[in-house]
Write a structure and sequence with these properties.
Strand order of the largest sheet: 1-2-3-4
Distance between the termini: 39 Å
Order of helices and strands: EEHHEEHHHHHEHEEHHEHEEH
Number of strands: 10
Strand content: 15-25%
Oligomer: single chain
Largest sheet: 4 strands, mixed
C-alpha cells in the first residue's frame, strides 16, 4: 500500500503527503494550542486558540513546502528532474532524480531552500512588526518568523543529507573536482552530526527531558540512516562507473515455445531447472518474456489450459536496454520500471538479458578482488 497521498501538482511535480505528516500536524496543533498561544496571548477563548493553532500549523507546513519548491525550481532550471515533493514527519523533501551536473549547480539548488526560509522569516517578521498589537495575529506571526529562521538554520548544519551537508559536498567537489570524494566527506560529516544528535538526545533523557530527548535521538537516527544510504549509493555509482551492460549481461538465456502450457512450463522447466524467466519463441522468433510473476497471476486450476504466449509480456512492451549503456543507468532504468530483469537489445535482436542478480554478482566479484 502506498504510504503517501497526492495533494496536487506544480510544474509537473507531484506534491504528496506522507502518512507520518498527519501525526506531526496533530502534535504541532496540540503543542501550540496547549502551551505556546495560551502563554503568549492569555485571555483568548479555547475555540480561538484552536483556530489559531490550526491556521498557524497550515502556514508552517506551507513554509516547508515553499522551502522544497525553492530546491525544485532551481533544479528544473538546471535541467535536473524532480520526481516529487513529499511532506513527512521531519518536514519535507524534494526527490531529485539525478545528481546535479556540476558543483555550481549543486550549490545553487541546495542554497535555494534555506534562502526561501530566510525570506519567509523576513516576511513574517515584517508582518509581526505591523500587527504585534493585535492579539489574534501577534503570536502566530512571531512564531512563524522564528520557526522559519530555525528551519533555515537547522538545514544549514553541515551534515549530509541536510542542505548544509550538500553545500559542504558542493564545496569539496569544487575544490577537488571529485564528486565521489566530496560525497564521502559530506556523508562522514553527516554521520558525525547524526551521532551528535543521538548523544544529545540520550543526555536529555537522563536529565528528564523525555520528549526532547526522544525527538533528538530520532532525528539523529534518521540522519544517520540517510547518510549511510547516500554513502552506499555513491559507492555503488563509483564502482559501476564506466562499466557497460555488455560486460555484465547474460549472453545465453532460456526460451520456450509459445504453445507450451503453463503446467508444462512449471513442471518441466521451473521446478526441475530452477529457472525464473523464459523468452517465448513463436515461429523461431522471440515474441516476449514470461516470468514467475506472470505465471502466478493465473489460477493454478487453469495452468493446463493456458499457454505461455497468453501470459507473456510482448517484446515490444518490455523495458529494454542496449549493450553499450552504462550499467548504473541500466540499473536506474530497472528501478524506475520496477522490474528485476530487462532484455538487452541491439538493433532489433535480443543479444542478452540483464538482471539484478547479475549486477549484484558483478559488484561482489569486484569487492572480492579489491577493485
Amino acid at each position: 500500500m502506498d504510504s503517501s497521498l497526492k495533494i496536487g501538482e506544480l510544474w509537473g511535480i507531484p506534491l504528496t503527503v506522507h502518512l507520518t505528516w498527519f501525526l506531526v500536524f496533530g502534535l504541532l496543533i496540540w503543542s501550540l494550542a496547549g502551551g505556546f498561544f495560551p502563554q503568549e496571548s492569555p485571555g483568548l477563548s479555547v475555540g480561538v486558540v484552536i483556530a489559531m493553532s490550526v491556521v498557524t500549523s497550515v502556514l508552517f507546513f506551507g513554509s516547508v513546502l515553499l522551502h522544497e519548491l525553492g530546491h525544485a525550481w532551481v533544479a528544473l532550471r538546471n535541467q535536473v528532474p524532480v520526481k516529487e515533493i513529499t511532506l513527512f514527519i521531519f518536514g519535507g523533501i524534494a526527490h531529485i532524480e539525478d545528481d546535479p551536473p556540476s558543483a555550481g549547480a549543486e550549490f545553487y539548488i541546495t542554497s535555494a531552500g534555506p534562502a526561501v526560509s530566510l525570506i519567509l522569516a523576513g516576511v513574517f517578521g515584517l508582518v509581526w512588526l505591523l500587527d504585534r498589537t493585535v492579539p489574534y495575529l501577534d503570536a502566530p506571526t512571531s512564531w512563524l518568523m522564528r520557526v522559519n529562521f530555525l528551519l533555515a538554520a537547522f538545514n544549514l548544519i553541515p551534515g549530509y543529507p541536510l542542505d548544509g551537508g550538500r553545500l559542504l559536498r558542493a564545496l569539496v567537489w569544487k575544490l577537488t573536482g571529485d564528486k565521489y570524494k566530496a560525497t564521502k566527506v559530506a556523508t562522514a560529516s553527516g554521520q558525525l552530526v547524526a551521532f551528535g544528535f543521538i548523544g544529545f538526545g540520550v543526555l536529555s533523557l537522563f536529565q528528564g527531558n523525555y520528549f526532547d530527548g526522544l525527538w533528538l535521538a530520532f532525528i539523529g537516527w534518521f540522519l544517520q540512516n540517510a547518510a549511510s544510504a547516500s554513502q552506499a549509493q555513491s559507492t555503488l555509482q563509483h564502482s559501476l562507473k564506466n562499466v557497460s551492460v555488455h560486460q555484465v549481461m547474460q549472453r545465453s538465456f532460456p526460451h520456450v515455445p509459445g504453445l507450451l502450457s503453463i503446467r508444462q512450463l512449471v513442471d518441466e522447466h521451473v521446478l526441475d531447472g530452477g529457472q525464473r524467466y523464459f523468452f517465448v519463441d513463436e515461429d523461431r522468433r522471440l515474441q516476449g518474456l514470461v516470468t514467475l510473476q506472470n505465471i502466478s497471476s493465473v489460477p493454478q486450476r487453469k495452468w493446463p489450459f493456458v499457454t505461455v504466449s497468453q501470459v507473456m509480456v510482448p517484446l515490444g512492451k518490455l523495458v529494454s536496454v542496449t549493450p553499450s549503456l552504462e550499467l548504473m543507468t541500466a540499473l536506474q532504468t530497472m528501478d524506475e520500471a520496477n522490474v528485476a530483469r530487462v532484455p538487452v537489445i541491439e538493433g532489433h535482436e535480443v543479444v542478452g538479458i540483464l538482471s539484478r542478480e547479475d549486477i549484484l554478482h558483478y559488484i561482489r566479484t569486484r569487492a572480492e578482488l579489491g577493485l
